Request: fold
Amino acid sequence: MAEEKKVTAKVSPKKQPKAAKELSIDEAAIETIERARELNIDTIFDRAEEMKPCNIGIQGTCCKNCAQGPCRLPLTPKSIVDGKDTRKGLCGATANTIAARNFARMVAAGAAAHSDHGRAVAETFLAAARGEVKDYQIKDEQKLLEIAADFGVDTTVEGENGEILDRDIQEIAIEVAEKALAQWGQQEGELITAKRAPKQRYELWKKLGVVPRGIDREIVEIMHRTHIGVDQDYENIILQCTRAAIADGWGGSMIATDLQDILFGCPFPVRSNANLGVLKEDHVNIIVHGHEPLLSEMVVAAANDPEMQKLAKEKGAKGIQISGICCTANEVLMRHGIPLAGNFLQQELAIVTGAVDVMVVDVQCIMENIANVADCFHTKIVTTNPRAKIRSGHCVHIEFDEHTAYEDALKIVRLAIENFPNREKPVIIPDAKHDLVAGFSYEAINYHLGGTFRGSYTPLNDNIINGRIRGIAGVVGCNNARTMHDNFHIELIKELIKKDVIVLTTGCSAIACAKAGLLTPESAKVFCGPGLAEVCEAVGIPPVLHMGSCVDNSRILMAATEVVKTGGLGNDISDLPAAGAAPEWMSEKAISIGHYFVVSGVYTVFGGHLPVDGAPEFKEYLFKGLEKIYGGMWDVAKDPEEMAQKMIAHIDKKRKELGIDKARERILFDMAARREMETI
Reply:
């Protein structure tokens, strides 16, 4: 019998993972990634190395909308025959139809996420106005009176003798709440808050038939149109995308921001600090993570309860430290100065410090893997929203109810305190943290530029016209593990402010800026061009203005509208020397946000790619066709330098169209020259 031949399988050597310093520019993130690897704990940074994206899905041409698929239509040289794209799914859907449907469904999901956030706020606001909940009150009556006018709610009433009297504030609040909440279910007519856009923009939307009828209706219609066998014209699909996106940015998100300001107070500048170094080894550490401030506001209040402080000391802690991750972090930062622990990609890393006793989460951007990381430590994950649960032994669900808000928050704080003595692994907290100034609502900017009696956007407009400020950039959005953590945000923003472009920022981009030291007035001298540095020094503001959470992108829309109304820079948002960017985008919310900026007239650049490369005709429509209709357009850039160049080129183009492309010569007038001017 012949000797049996032994076969040895060839095993490919495992690829060495990238060094932590290649994955993030954040020193705290680098330190905790290294610690996680030492403890054999995988994080999103490792998973991104091991799992590559689908090369067809990334082109946007994989359709899973029926059970005959998935139909995968990659763009290859063989796809084009005699100049014609021959690709079709089983039902005959072309690559352009599939890419448009996928794009539309991302808009629908993103708009639903932000608008559902707004609905929850509106429901709580109505309950508070009616006196049905005891833990929420109206804190900003002035803003209530201001938005009452938008909703057609009278703030005065005629007295018995014909005199005009102030109407009861609770009556006003109830009527505003009812009209605001009705915007979600409205089936016909127009979204009330769409009329806040500049008159020329609103009239354009009206002419094109894209003014939303109601928030929910527009999202549902996208889902209907993108079902198999319905809408198969990509231009028509994008028309509906536009209605839904406007319903998000100028509707659900904007209403959420307004009602949150009334309930919790309109943000004004506040000092704090950011990064994992804000955690304290000798304190009970509670991290609030997610997006809705209804819960986090109560957690902050409960942590300051004397009984909770006393209990913490009885358990051996010196106190209770609240910090935040993602947009909940931005919400409590702006109103209370609560420090930022980090942005999206740092949620697992915060637990790796061993210092977090409870991470309390609500909705959106919560990684399921935080439960697995928590299993390696003493940390408890507390889910609070019926929409978002995690199945894990270390997860505790404490359902949050606005009617028992404070009691629910006390349960969470108590759980954290009771968990403090259970720390097993050594606590290793990075030293990294940076000072910041945040809380620049568009009302705060107005005040900062002129004070109580002379508040106005005129100084901003004047300095854009005279060339000290080149233009305005809105830089927003997520982190993405496919790019170097925070690098795209920071390199882009440094380049913009170096070229005298003032930056408005929200969300995880704002947190990246905070950690990089860009949110202080002092940073202007270090990073800015001479014109912007001079303005920042005169006014006392940072060159990068933190405007809030991702739902607060509506503040950027309102700031742009105020610039238009102030005059001298055109009649519409599309006339402004302004551009928008989402350098490290990753969520469906980002697509909805990007689209409502585009159709509001803003040139909008995303980092890396958009999932439309597999449908060149549809991509051409997004990148060039929409500009002819709305004055705004989509674009992409592969790196921060290219993105900055594109944004600055657009800003310069708009300056030239406005006739302000040449900076005015600065002249120091003596008294004789001033008298001569006065006699002209």
User: Anything to note?
Assistant: The first helix runs from residue 27 to 38. Residues 96 and 617 are 7 Å apart (CA to CA). The longest strand covers residues 284-289.
